[in-house]
Amino acid sequence: MIVVLLGPPGCGKGTQGERLAAALKVPKISTGDVIRAAMKNGTPLGLQAKAFYDRGDLVPDTLIMDIIRETLAAPEQARGVVLDGVVRTTPQAEGLNGVLTELGRKVDLVLLFEIADEELVGRLSARVVCEACQSPFMGRQPGERHADCLKDPKGTLVRRKDDEPEAIRNRLTVYGVQTAPVIGWYREHGANMKSIAALGTVDGVTALVNAAAGVA
Ligand SMILES: [Zn+2]
Fold it and tell me: Is residue 147 assigned to a domain?
């Protein structure tokens, strides 16, 4: 089963994707994971990607898709895969579709995590991270100490610039501009797409995801 996760930053699809992958007994992969793995393993495509990284350039979509093709063709992914953050734009949806067609496979399920922007702004701006070890915390204040920090006993909690309300609204705007067409693209191509109301407890959302994926 090949599952594509779509959803805005802070919607919890990373956590839900890991749980779904475990339930389906398949790997969960993200674009960052597969590029890092290819670079670490020194594959020919990995070396090409590393050249872009080392120059400080973005790895082009076509190279990313080549790496994803190689990853999806590997035996570890034969039973299926949960793809998190692999499809963010229409060209990526088309690219993935092309790769899967070549491999004689297809996207079986698209899960669309839906949640109101203001809920995400509230959630993400309530998050602080330890400056030293980057561990995230909810319900703590900037300036407090991370008492059990493994990196620095004086580790201090800070709000990341990315998690300021204004920055979050910008990230959500980018998501809306890039991803709304992806949803339309999957609809036009007759994908099996299901919406998940990503509000409430983590376990509650997991129950919705499992129901959508037909996992007991
Ligand atoms: Zn820490």
Answer: no
Query: Would the pLDDT of 182 be above 90?
Result: yes
Q: What is the mean pLDDT of residues 169-178?
A: 91
Residue 47 within any structural domain of the chain: no
**Do the Cβ atoms of 87 and 97 come closer than 8 Å?**
no
Kind of pairing between the strands at 157-158 and 28-30: unpaired
CA of 118 to the centre of ligand 1 (A): 28
CATH of the domain at 178: 3.40.50.300
Range of 97's domain?
A: 2-26+79-115+169-213
Q: State the total domains in the chain.
A: 1
Question: What pTM was estimated for this model as a whole?
Answer: 0.84
pLDDT digits (tens, 9 = 90+) for 23-32: 999 999 988 8
- 146 alpha carbon to ligand 1 midpoint, in Å? 5
Q: Catalytic site residues?
A: 13, 88, 127, 160, 171
